Structure formats: C-alpha cells, structure tokens
Amino acid sequence: MSRRTMLALGASLAAGATPARSATGAHAMNSTGKTDTAQSFALTRPIHVGTAHLVVSDIDRVRQFYETMLGLKVIEQGMSGVVLGAGARPLLTLTTRADVRPAPRNAAGLFHTAFLMPDRTELGHWLAHAVAQGVRLDGASDHLVSEAIYLSDPEGNGIEVYRDRAPEDWDFRADGTVEMATLGLDLQGLYDSAPKTAWAGMSDKAAIGHMHLQVGNIPEADRFYEGVLGLKKMATYPGASFFGAGTYHHHIAANIWNSRGATARQGAMSGLSDYSLTFNDQTALDTALTTLESLEIPVTRTAEGHALKDPWGIGLTLKAA
C-alpha cells in the first residue's frame, strides 16, 4: 500500500473546489471541536507519547519546515541538533551525522509523527496558515474518532496533524476496542471555519498524540506493544494494528504497508531514530520493565529514562511522568 496520493490543497481551495464531505451522523455533528480541558485526553492516559527524534541530512532545511509550516519553536540548539516544541513542551529533536544515508522506502521506521491539536479551531487555524504557506498534502481523513490531515517534511518523513473528537462520541465495542474508519474529510468546511486572524504558531497545548510506525510484521508488533509494553490493541486494519492506553484510540500504530518483512534499522539510516513513552502510571512502568527483564530484552538506564530498541531497531525510551 503506497503513501497517500499527493494533492495540492491551496490550488483546490483557491479554485473553490469542495473536497469529499465527512460522514453524517453523531460523529460529524460534533463540529465545534472546542475543548476547555487543560490538556488533551491522550495525555491523561496511563501511557502517552512524549517526544520523537529524527535523523536528517539537511538539518537547516528540515528545521525551517517544522518552524514555518508546523509552527514549532526552537527550544534548544547545538552543533549537531535542534529541539523543537510547542510553547515550552519539547516535541521533536532533529540531528544529523556525517554518514547519514536515506532510509529505503521499505525500511522499518516512521510512517508518520502525529501532532495533536487541542481542538478543531486550532486544526482549522493551522490549515489556513498552511494553505497560505503553499502546503502540499498527502491526504486528509475523517477517522470517526478524529479528523486528520497528512503531509511530509522535505526529506519524506510523514506527518499527521489532527484533532480528536470528544471521547464520549467514540463508539466502543463490547471488547473495549473502538470503531475507526477512513472517510473523506470536509477540508473546505474546516478551512472556512478557521479564525481569520494570523496564526501565532502551534498551541502550547499541542502534543505528539501518537506515533505511526513501519514494521516488519504485525504479529510481532502485537507481541511487543501489547504483550511487552502493556498497551491494548484498540483497532485493526488490513496490515496494521493500533495500540492505546486507557481507552485512547491509539498512541502507537504499526503497519506493513510498505515494509513487510523489514529487518532492524541500521545506525546511519535517516528517519526515526527513537521516540519516548511517558508513563503516568508507575505500576504500568514497573510491569513493563519487569516483562522486558524476564524476556532478556536489553534496557539501559539513562538520564531520560529506560532506553531500549523495538524488534526493528527503533529506539524507545520509557519515562516516568
């Protein structure tokens, strides 16, 4: 399955074209998307995503993209890397190295980093800004639980910018899994609803809501993310599993659409080097560490937390909140 077909949003909106409409019914009726909560539901769960780290070839070009198009701010900068974030919250580290080489399209690693906006107003405001910047999209979808827009950075690293619908509007099955779909998103309506003021950058309530990974096979991903780390498989799709904590639709997704049979990443590959999971629940962290030890999966204690690699060599740090 290839990455979503490229489309130029700016041209279609300027021409007055109307993209595919979202589904009707209870999900679509929750259209204001405004929330008064201090932080997104995804971050209040026992486990949530913290930060991501990409290795890139042209760090200045990629940094400028995330600043200009995504509205991230530089929090820390050094000789070989930069930390970008929303407000004071670090979200994305970019580094480079002399021997970096582009990762093959079928390599294990990143499918996309998903930036979660606090509400629909912020998603629309970002969309209007992105259109003004000449955004080129990979696609846009209504997933019932969320509304999502997809694009890529200059080196092909996938990005999702999305907002969640209220959890009380999600449909849960008897086994605790959640109903998700891929429907057309009303981009024109979202664009038209955006505030007409200048966008000031990504909200300090924004976060990385989930990481979507390319892996070598799904049963092994299920064993690792559910069996070892303690996430629940919340949804499935042909060639993909979606794992979440505390009834969230997914904090981690894994697919084989481009990467079936992929082996461990090599050290000099570009793309996703590592990411972190933050544990609000100390018992859940202790259980995961005990399971890792029992399976003799190497874990290194660092200043940031407990560092390890998943079955495909993607780095992962487990942190206590």
Can you describe what's shown?
This protein has a 9-stranded mixed beta sheet with strand order 9-6-7-8-5-10-13-12-11. By secondary structure, the chain is an alpha+beta fold. It has helices spanning 9-14, 26-29, 59-68, 120-132, 187-192, 218-228, 282-294, and strands at 47-55, 73-77, 81-86, 89-95, 109-117, 139-142, 146-152, 158-164, 183-184, 207-214, 232-237, 240-244, 252-255, 271-279, 300-301, 306-309, 315-320. Helices cover 20% and strands 31% of the residues.
Note the topology:
Layout: H1 9-14, H2 26-29, E1 47-55, H3 59-68, E2 73-77, E3 81-86, E4 89-95, E5 109-117, H4 120-132, E6 139-142, E7 146-152, E8 158-164, E9 183-184, H5 187-192, E10 207-214, H6 218-228, E11 232-237, E12 240-244, E13 252-255, E14 271-279, H7 282-294, E15 300-301, E16 306-309, E17 315-320
Parallel strand pairs: 1-4, 5-8, 10-13, 14-17
Antiparallel strand pairs: 1-14, 2-3, 3-4, 5-10, 6-7, 6-9, 7-8, 11-12, 12-13, 15-16, 16-17
